C-alpha cells in the first residue's frame, strides 16, 4: 500500500480520540456531500426542463422549417414542391401561411396569429403532448374549422358547443381607393367555426389559431405565396441528413431550421442559466471546502511531533505534503461519493415517482422533470478534485516545513 495514503487514511479513521479536529473533518465531509448532491440535483432539473421545453415545442413546431432568407413570404408552385418532396428521408411537407389577425367572438376581441396549414398538417403528429379538447378537425373549404389555443379561447370566451356563434377573423388590406370612406374596404373578413382547444405552452396557447390553408389564403389574399414550409422526416431517418439535403437543394435564398434552431434563444438561455447555477454552486462548494483547509491546518499543528518523527525516520518533504493532500482528498472524495450517490438516488426517485410537484393543476406535467447526464457527474467530480487540491495544498506545505530541531 502507498505509504502516504496509508498514513492519511489512519489519520482520517483514527478513533483514538474524538477531538475538535476530527469533528471538523466530518463536518467538512458533510459539507462537500451536501454541495455535491445539490449540484447533481439542480443540474439534472435543468436538463429535465431543457428536454421538457424541447418536447413541448416539438409537439407544435415542425421537425424542419423552411423559410425565406429575406422577406416573410415566398412563391411556390408544383415543380418547386415536388423537388422538395423528392428529398430522401422526407415524409410529409406542409404548406403554411401565418400572420397576425384580429379575432372577434360575440362581444370579445383579441389579436393573435392565424396559421393556415395544408390538409396533411395533422399527419405530422401534432399535439401529441399537452392537452386537447374537442375534435381535432380542420374541416373543408365549404365549412372550415379552427383549432384554437386555450389562452385565445379564454380571452374570447369561446364556447365549442355553441353552433350558432362563429369566430370572425379580420385582416387589414390596402384599399383600392385611397380616398374611400367605406371601412369595409380597409379589411378582409371571414368566419370560421371553432372546433377544438389545445394547450401546449403559454406562448402558443395565448397566440395561435390553426385554420385550413385555403381559408387563410383567401383571407390574406396570398395567392401562391407561403410564409414557410414544414417538414416531417421518415421515422428513424437522421434529421441532420435531410436538413443538409434541403440546404443544398434550396441554396442561400432559404433557411432550414430544426426544432432547436427555431427556438435557439430560449434554449441558449436555459444553458446559460445552467452554467451560472453550476458556477454559483461550485463557489458554495468551495466555501464548504474551507473547512478542509482549517481542519488540515489544525491537524498540521497537532501532528507536529508525528511529522518530526517521520522526518527523523527519513521521510521527505514530498511524502509529508502527499500525506496531507491525500488526507484532504479522502475527506473530499468521501463527501463527494456520498453526495453523488444521494444526488443520483434523489433524482431517480423524482424521475420515477414524481414526489416534488409543480403545484400547478393545469400544467402539462405534474412534477419537476429531471434528467441525469454523465457529463454533469464528471464536471462535478472535476470541480471537487480541483477545490480539494487548492484547499489541501497550503496546509500540506506548512506541515512539510516542520523539522525535528524545531521541537
From TrEMBL:
Q: Which Pfam families match?
A: FtsX
Q: In which family does this protein belong, per the annotation?
A: Belongs to the ABC-4 integral membrane protein family. LolC/E subfamily.
Q: Entry's PANTHER family? A: LIPOPROTEIN-RELEASING SYSTEM TRANSMEMBRANE PROTEIN LOLE
* Organism name: Belliella filtrata
- Its protein name is ABC transporter permease
Membrane topology recorded in Swiss-Prot or TrEMBL: Multi-pass membrane protein
Q: What is the lineage of its organism?
A: Bacteria, Pseudomonadati, Bacteroidota, Cytophagia, Cytophagales
- Its primary localisation, in coarse terms, equals membrane
Name where it's found: Cell membrane
Coiled coil residues, start to end: none
What parts of the sequence cross the membrane? 20-46, 275-296, 328-346, 377-397
Q: Which UniProt key words apply to this protein?
A: Cell membrane, Membrane, Transmembrane, Transmembrane helix
Where does the ABC3 transporter permease C-terminal domain lie? 279-403
Amino acid at each position: 500500500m502507498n505509504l502516504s495514503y496509508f498514513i492519511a487514511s489512519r489519520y482520517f479513521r483514527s478513533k483514538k480520540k474524538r477531538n475538535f479536529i476530527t469533528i471538523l473533518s466530518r463536518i467538512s465531509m458533510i459539507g462537500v456531500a451536501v454541495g455535491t448532491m445539490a449540484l447533481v440535483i439542480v443540474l439534472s432539473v435543468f436538463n429535465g426542463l431543457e428536454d421538457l421545453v424541447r418536447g413541448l415545442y416539438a409537439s407544435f413546431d415542425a421537425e424542419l422549417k423552411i423559410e425565406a432568407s429575406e422577406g416573410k413570404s415566398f412563391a411556390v408552385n408544383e415543380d418547386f414542391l415536388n423537388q422538395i418532396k423528392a428529398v430522401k428521408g422526407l415524409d410529409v411537407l406542409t404548406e403554411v401561411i401565418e400572420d397576425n389577425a384580429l379575432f372577434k367572438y360575440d362581444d370579445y376581441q383579441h389579436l393573435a396569429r392565424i396559421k393556415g396549414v395544408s390538409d396533411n398538417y395533422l399527419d405530422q403528429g401534432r399535439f401529441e403532448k399537452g392537452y386537447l379538447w374537442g375534435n381535432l378537425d380542420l374541416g373543408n373549404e365549404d365549412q372550415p374549422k379552427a383549432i384554437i389555443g386555450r389562452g385565445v379561447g379564454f380571452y374570447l370566451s369561446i364556447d365549442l358547443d355553441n353552433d350558432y356563434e362563429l369566430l370572425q377573423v379580420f385582416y387589414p388590406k390596402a384599399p383600392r381607393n385611397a380616398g374611400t370612406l367605406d371601412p369595409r374596404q380597409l379589411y378582409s373578413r371571414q368566419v370560421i367555426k371553432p372546433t377544438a382547444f389545445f394547450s401546449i405552452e403559454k406562448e402558443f396557447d395565448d397566440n395561435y389559431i390553426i385554420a385550413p390553408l385555403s381559408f387563410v389564403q383567401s383571407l390574406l389574399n396570398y395567392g401562391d405565396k407561403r410564409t414557410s414550409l414544414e417538414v416531417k422526416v421518415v421515422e428513424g431517418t437522421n434529421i441532420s441528413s435531410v436538413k443538409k439535403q434541403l440546404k443544398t437543394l434550396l441554396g442561400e435564398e432559404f433557411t432550414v431550421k430544426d426544432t432547436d434552431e427555431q427556438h435557439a434563444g430560449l434554449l441558449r438561455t436555459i444553458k446559460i442559466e445552467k452554467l451560472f447555477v453550476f458556477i454559483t454552486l461550485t463557489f458554495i462548494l468551495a466555501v464548504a471546502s474551507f473547512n478542509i483547509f482549517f481542519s488540515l491546518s489544525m491537524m498540521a499543528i497537532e501532528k507536529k511531533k508525528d511529522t518530526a518523527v517521520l522526518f527523523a525516520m527519513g521521510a521527505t518533504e514530498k511524502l509529508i505534503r502527499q500525506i496531507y493532500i491525500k488526507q484532504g482528498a479522502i475527506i473530499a472524495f468521501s463527501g463527494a461519493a456520498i453526495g453523488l450517490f444521494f444526488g443520483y438516488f434523489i433524482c431517480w426517485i423524482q424521475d420515477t415517482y414524481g414526489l416534488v410537484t409543480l403545484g400547478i393543476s393545469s400544467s402539462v406535467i405534474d412534477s419537476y422533470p429531471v434528467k441525469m447526464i454523465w457529463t454533469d457527474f464528471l464536471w462535478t467530480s472535476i470541480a471537487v478534485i480541483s477545490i480539494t487540491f487548492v484547499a489541501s495544498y497550503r496546509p500540506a506545505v506548512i506541515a512539510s516545513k516542520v523539522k525535528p530541531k524545531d521541537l
